[in-house]
Amino acid sequence: MSNEAATATTAAEAAPAPDPIAHGLGASLPPADAGAKTEGTFPYAADLWAEGLLWAAVLRSPHAHARIVSIDTSHAREMPGVRAVVTHEDVPGRALHGRGTADRPVFASDVVRHHGEPIAAVAADHPDTARMAAAAVIVEYEVLDPVTDPEQAFEAEPLHPDGNLIRHIPLRHGDPEAAGEVVVEGLYRIGRQDPAPIGAEAGLAVPRPDGGVELYLASTDPHADRDTAAAVYGLAPERVKIVVTGVPGATADREDQGFQLPLGLLALRTGCPVKLTATREESFLGHVHRHPTLLRYRHHADAEGRLVKVEAQILLDAGAYADTSAEALAAAVSFACGPYVVPNAFIEGWAVRTNNPPSGHVRGEGALQVCAAYEAQMDKLAKKLGLDPAELRLRNVMATGDVLPTGQTVTCPAPVAELLQAVRDFPLPPLPKDAPEEEWLLPGGPEGAGEPGAVRRGVGYGLGMVHMLGAEGADEVSTATVKVQDGVATVLCAAVETGQGFTTLARQIVQETLGIDEVHVAPVDTDQPPAGAGCRGRHTWVSGGAVERAAKMVRTQLLQPLAHKFGMSTELLQITDGKITSYDGVLSTTVTEAMDGKELWATAQCRPHPTEPLDEAGQGDAFVGLAFCAIRAVVDVDIELGSVRVVELAVAQDVGRVLNPAQLEARIEAGVTQGVGIALTENLRTPRGLVRHPDLTGYALPTALDAPDIRIVRLVEERDVVAPFGAKAVSAVPVVTSPAAVASAVRAATGRPVNRLPIRPQAAVVTPQ
């Protein structure tokens, strides 16, 4: 053996053993599907295939508002390769659907109410044939004037049998005669944001021998989608099965039901599997968007800057159909004053139908729009009083025990002052060097920037809040089963992994509770009990709680025989790193030995405490829990060109408990970046109700080059005692808060009011005096 070889062998023998992989709650456990997604082998719906596959295409309306005079499908049916053409006449069951309110036709029959509304669907043996056949369907329209201004919807002729007004909430809290020594007013507009889901919206429908159908979809709420599909198809729910395929990220309702439903109709009609992959244009036209909102505010304060009264009018543009607009309006009205103590509040909120594209659930709906407005008001108030904006906010922030304008007492941790102080005291970033190689740091980059002397730096603040889980009496419940055999645990829960990290959390819970390293989470389908929609942090709370309870039941089954044998209670036994030990050290064995080849399993539910609807005065305990965030934004603005560069966003957030540090930080950073897009670039333009540039060229999403430095300066871990693990949702509140903070910083840099999102260049231009 050579000296080199001997040295190598000795070094190898002396090298310390690698640390075991961290697991359980509090560890940065990587996602189980990370490798497959990185390697491109993760199974998305667009990758699915079946023997005898047909291809689908949908004909959509080119008009925002029109009366349908006639539909002629004969030419399409006669085309070679076409197997079926379906319209409203071929819907065997309920003709309407919708996430919150079922008011949206599967296919338009007499009236088209928005650009892109489905008219007919085709199944053919080739995707090109399907698209040509859809184009061959002849529709005669009588074009009508669209109602696109939500303020006009109050006086316009009814656009829908249910009328134009979806919901009105008049919130009354305190003394209407109260007035402050200082008053500021503002009018604000928030644009239409598209959720822009990663990956194509796609699905596969396979007919079953019993006359039912299976749908393979990237559904985020499979049981609700199944029930809707069964009603439309005229089938019992047990004859429709939804299998959830890989979901390539979701910041809203991932799949448009109007996209899903024609698939099953075509599969039932043809007796063959049918696949549909939407184009990006179809996605923009079909799925819901964030509600464009008009907000009028009046803030009253005393001479010290303490809020006395807030008055507001909030108008949400729901588009053609109601969807979840009633829920979004409840959030907007309830949080219209923000995380501040306001003794008197009078808020009027409306959601109305128009001929614009449909609006619905998008992360932070309702809360984001009002956050941008009330934070602008706080900046105006600080300026009028000559106070530092952060100091003014600190004088008014709420804490645990304070009362919301809805009359609900804040019982959860509300460390708003601590969050604001953390971002305020964090060191500011250095100014960019005045050198040619640093020109890329200027707004617009080296090719788009003006003179460096025209650049102004601004610092602004945003405080945001969101509710977790459903609200106003929503029955939030989830069911989970945990099985253990041969040292391997399996979790069965219909909670869909949308990128929020539920499957990783479920593994960590079982590892923590049972001391088992190898944990698998089964694929989701509707043969499992319901777990609800994947939004508002509900799977961390409700589904995670169900997994924990089931795992604890299995733990009891595992420990009871040992406890009985040694004459002690199960509470005196603990499981750590796969070993079971007693408090006194008398008992020491492994989980595998204790299992002795048995299979243990348990099923459990988690249901949070009930809530109640808001009453006729906007009062009621409507929310299960709240989460808070503070962000300090630093921006550079070219005041001649109006271009804005976000330099840094410092974030402090109320998280309850950190369950997976790496995953939590990634979710916060993603939410902040999404908010930057809302603040500066994202606006789906719809002149006269027609979607303009429905693609990712015309719709400007922020890229990695647009993402600012994000500094997570404080994570406050004050556990919410009513939440499993004490954890809070983390994704929505940074989305809600960051646009307001960016707008605040632009106001500080320019002195301009900045009352519209996204911020247009002309709003940041300062005219020389």
Automatic annotation (TrEMBL):
Domain Aldehyde oxidase/xanthine dehydrogenase a/b hammerhead, first and last residues per copy: 39-145
Xref: InterPro entries: Ald_Oxase/Xan_DH_a/b, Ald_Oxase/Xan_DH_a/b_sf, Ald_Oxase/xanthine_DH-like, AldOxase/xan_DH_MoCoBD1, AldOxase/xan_DH_MoCoBD2, AldOxase/xan_DH_Mopterin-bd_sf
Biased composition (Low complexity): 1-16
SMART domains, sorted: Ald_Xan_dh_C
Region described as Disordered: spans on this chain: 1-34
Pfam families: Ald_Xan_dh_C, MoCoBD_1, MoCoBD_2
Molecular functions per Gene Ontology: iron ion binding; oxidoreductase activity
The protein's name in its UniProt record: Oxidoreductase
Biological source species: Streptomyces galbus
